[in-house]
Design a protein that fits this description.
single chain, transmembrane, globular, Memb_transporter_dom, membrane, transmembrane helix, YccS_N, 72% helix, mainly alpha, two-stranded parallel sheet, 704 residues, two-stranded antiparallel sheet, Methane Monooxygenase Hydroxylase, Chain G, domain 1, 3 domains
């Protein structure tokens, strides 16, 4: 993609306004928290204290809107506590330009590294720096700085208290995640009726797993409807694919295929009913017509072979889903006591240790997170120094804009830069115009600020340009409480917003962290993860008595994570103005198709894993060992732009075919499909290698 095309696409993305589901009660609760804090500060204190307290409540409210599985009150308290500390240190350092610049450099460097922990941590940390840059401009003493910091923390306490006193859809995020996972499997079942090779996006299942991670205290309070369904959905998905597959399931046409379509449609209906009940907290109501289909017909089974086994397994799993709607799914241990299973989430100490490990992993020069932290530090400091040298005042506005705009990837940085400037322009003009025409007092300005906060909370997920406009107007009204001049607000802030946005964009172009050169590494990681999943399944066929479900489960989760990382990198690389370095877009798509096919084949095998008392398969063990030995050099070949070698795997497959004769079985047929997928991967990478060695002139989209 050329630079001109990339800039057009990012600008179009930044200006896009999406229609999304709003949460008016949650937005109203957050705006009430801001209103309570401002009102108390104006009544008992001064306008400057009201501004500090309002920013604390505002930031705490923003933190609670982030997609996190942590309890919302704790998010509000954590955001307000971090902002209070940041504000107090900023006040102490703001007396001298040099000390403030040093403090800003350290703080922004730490903020950039917080993206290693996760997007929620990165966004909340960014918000802390942005608000700190505004609040430290309010005049006060050292003792007053401590009072400002305490009021900022008070804003978080108020927001957390409101969440506890007026809960809106408790466990709503977890309910939505689990319902989305069940609905995704239901949609998959319906697609398989006429597309037996339909693609399934595992992201909803990954989100549901993340939402199911709980602390012991949360597990005791978790609603009954959130127990058991996720694992059932995980088990149903490969059975559906196996049932619909024309190679190992029913034939493409005929009475058996008609029966399969009936089973798939009924399964989708049942899962949709369960998803609707979980999302809205209501009893499950399953149509009787669907349940009648999901029973063995009175005249006997209509399917044969592997399709019949898959259908019986599906009937059993759907029955478990229906039973789980009446009673929680439990596991009875050998001692006879009931154990409720849940995914453990680390407590505060464990979360801090995990965060430190994540930051340590990203502390390398090739890491996009470290490069983002360095960019953010350099741009914030240079923006503050340039703004101080200009005769505009409000020196904080340029680094504030850079902090809010800069992200670890190219597309978000440039799209947010355009949206931030135009949104700020609109918000400052509207807010400044209202202040100039009405000349509101402190209480009216506070009321207008609360209205802007309500609008921002309500429209937060519609687009960054809308959010920027609401926040800019909020800041104008809030600072007018302390007597800021509206004319200076309009002129200086628009100019400095443009300066901060330009600095952020230039910084990314000069010091980029492109995803395009890392595509081969992501592809190799995905190949390795898929291979580990495949060998775990074939080992289960080779030694059924020794199979370990936990090993298969962990390999599946690793394969999903590797696929998600590849898709995220590929999507980012597609929007970058960089010529491919060894992996063209066509080759990337072909390689993705090959590895997706490989993952699907292994998933089909998972649906037919033999019981522990089944006969072992020496040929499956030989194939698993050949694949295990071939994977490390193959992954290294992918990284080094060489075609992987699967000769040993081919030889093992040939030996297996000779042993099986004319009775191949499900495992052998899937092994053949897996080898074909590996050959497709080799062909895609070989074609890409030939294209990358073709002499070409300089490209307009070449990396700077």
């Amino acid at each position: 993609m050329t630079w001109s095309h990339a800039l057009k696409e990012t600008a179009r993305t930044g200006l896009a306004i999406e229609r999304t589901r709003m949460e008016p009660l949650v937005a109203l609760r957050g705006a009430c928290g801001v209103a309570i804090v401002i009102g108390m500060a104006l009544w008992l204190g001064s306008p400057t204290l009201a501004v500090s307290a309002a920013f604390g409540a505002f930031s705490a409210g923003v933190a609670t809107f982030q997609r996190s599985w942590r309890p919302r009150p704790w998010l509000a308290l954590a955001a307000a506590a971090g902002l209070a500390v940041s504000t107090f240190l900023g006040y102490l350092a703001a007396t001298h330009t040099l000390t403030f610049v040093l403090m800003l450099a350290v703080w922004t460097l730490m903020t950039g590294m917080s993206w290693a922990v996760g997007p929620v941590s990165g966004l909340v940390s960014t918000q802390m720096v942005a608000v700190m840059l505004i609040t430290v401009t309010l005049p006060t003493s050292t003792l007053g700085a401590l009072g400002h910091a305490l009021l900022v923390g008070l804003g978080g306490v108020v927001q957390a208290t409101l969440i506890v006193l007026f809960p809106v859809r408790p466990w709503g995020v977890q309910r939505d995640a689990l319902a989305d996972a069940l609905a995704a499997v239901a949609d998959y079942a319906r697609k398989l009726r006429y597309e037996p090779m339909a693609h399934f996006d595992p992201k909803p299942l990954m989100e549901a797993r993340s939402a199911a991670a709980l602390t012991p205290r949360q597990a005791r309070r978790r609603p009954r409807q959130l127990r058991g369904y996720r694992l059932l959905a995980e088990r149903i998905r490969p059975v559906l694919a196996s049932l619909a597959d024309p190679v190992v399931g029913a034939p493409e046409e005929g009475p058996e295929r008609d029966r399969v379509r009936e089973l798939l449609a009924a399964t989708g209906t049942v899962l949709d009913a369960v998803a609707h009940a979980i999302r809205h907290g209501r009893p499950v109501r399953v149509p009787s017509e669907a349940m009648s289909v999901l029973r063995v017909p009175e005249d006997g089974p209509k399917l044969n072979g592997a399709a019949r086994r898959a259908a019986l397994r599906l009937l059993s799993l759907v029955a478990d889903v229906v039973e789980a709607s009446d009673e929680p799914v439990e596991e009875v241990s050998a001692e006879g006591r009931t154990v409720h299973r849940f995914l453990p989430r680390p407590g505060m100490t464990g979360a801090v240790a995990m965060a430190l490990r994540a930051i340590r992993r990203e502390a390398r020069w090739s890491s996009p997170v470290l490069r983002h932290a360095v960019r953010l530090c350099a741009v914030s400091v240079s923006g503050y120094l340039l703004s101080t040298a200009l005769p505009l005042g409000h020196a904080y506005w340029a680094p504030l804009t850079s902090t809010m705009v800069l992200r670890p990837d190219f597309a978000q940085t440039y799209s947010r830069g355009v949206a931030r400037f135009l949104g700020t322009l609109a918000g400052v003009l509207v807010g400044g115009g209202v202040v100039a025409l009405v000349d509101p007092g402190s209480y009216l300005s506070a009321g207008l600020a609360v209205v802007c906060v309500l609008a921002m909370y309500l429209l937060m997920r519609t687009g960054f340009i809308v959010t920027s406009a609401c926040v800019s107007a909020y800041v104008v009204f809030l600072l007018s409480i302390a007597g800021a001049a509206w004319g200076q607000t309009v002129q200086a802030r628009v100019a400095l917003t443009l300066l901060g946005g330009v600095l952020a964009m230039v910084a990314y172009a000069v010091f980029p962290a492109w995803e395009t050169p890392r595509l081969r590494d992501r592809l190799a990681d995905w190949l390795t993860a898929n291979g580990a999943f495949a060998t775990a399944i074939f080992d289960a066929y080779a030694r059924p008595a020794d199979r370990r479900p936990r090993q298969v489960r962990d390999a599946l989760l690793d394969a999903r994570a590797a696929r998600s990382a590849w898709e995220q990198s590929e999507a980012q690389a597609h929007r970058e103005p960089v010529r491919h370095r060894g992996l063209s877009q066509r080759a990337a798509r072909a390689a993705q198709t090959a590895l997706s096919t490989m993952a699907r084949v292994v998933m089909l095998l998972e649906a037919h894993v033999p019981e522990r008392d089944a006969a072992p398969s020496e040929a499956a063990g030989d194939f698993a060992e050949a694949l295990r030995q071939a994977l490390p050099p193959a992954a290294e070949a992918v990284r080094q732009r060489r075609p992987p070698d699967w000769e040993a795997v081919h030889q093992s497959l040939t030996r297996w075919q000779q042993r099986a004769g004319d009775r191949p079985g499900v495992a052998l047929r899937d092994a053949e499909q897996l080898v074909l997928a590996l050959d497709d991967l080799t062909e895609a990478l070989t074609r890409s290698g030939r294209q990358s060695r073709t002499p070409r002139g300089p490209s307009q989209g070449e990396s700077p």
